[in-house]
Amino acid sequence: MPSRAVVNKLKVCEIPSELKRLNNLEKHLIALRLPFMKIVNLTSGKLSSRLTQKGTKGPLHCVPSDVEDTVTTLPRPVDKSMMVRLQLKRRLKYKAVWEEQLINPNDVRDALFVLTKMHPGYK
């Protein structure tokens, strides 16, 4: 019997709606570690890039992030529909932006509230 079987009470719980509605950058904001890697196509030819096999090239960096600092620097939302333009960089001294998107600070706070109840790493 597998160690992660439902019989052993190790079933995967359903993802809460607060976490489902987050976009990629909002997920990066509340992640405990951010992975940075270069992803390349392993096969060449006429296949489209989304169908080819992928792999990593070079080093993989897992950068720990301080979620508490991130949340305290987010502006307080005036209303629930307020959006903030956010740029994520690999380092603050770099000029290049790694990812840029509009985020909803209220959704980020709601997701963190759910994670503090569910996950021991966020307590």
Structure description:
With 123 residues, the protein is α+β, with helices and mostly antiparallel strands. It has one domain (16-122). The protein is built from four helices and four strands. It has helices spanning 17-20, 24-30, 67-73, 105-118, and strands spanning 33-41, 54-64, 84-88, 99-103.
Number of strands: 4
Number of domains: 1
Largest sheet: 2 strands, antiparallel
| Percent of residues in helices | 25-40%
Please compute the radius of gyration using only Cα atoms: 18 Å
* Shape label: globular
Strand order of the largest sheet: 1-2
Q: How are the secondary structure elements laid out?
A:
Elements: H1 17-20, H2 24-30, E1 33-41, E2 54-64, H3 67-73, E3 84-88, E4 99-103, H4 105-118
Short descriptors:
two-stranded antiparallel sheet; 123 residues
Quick take:
With 123 residues, the protein is of the alpha+beta class.
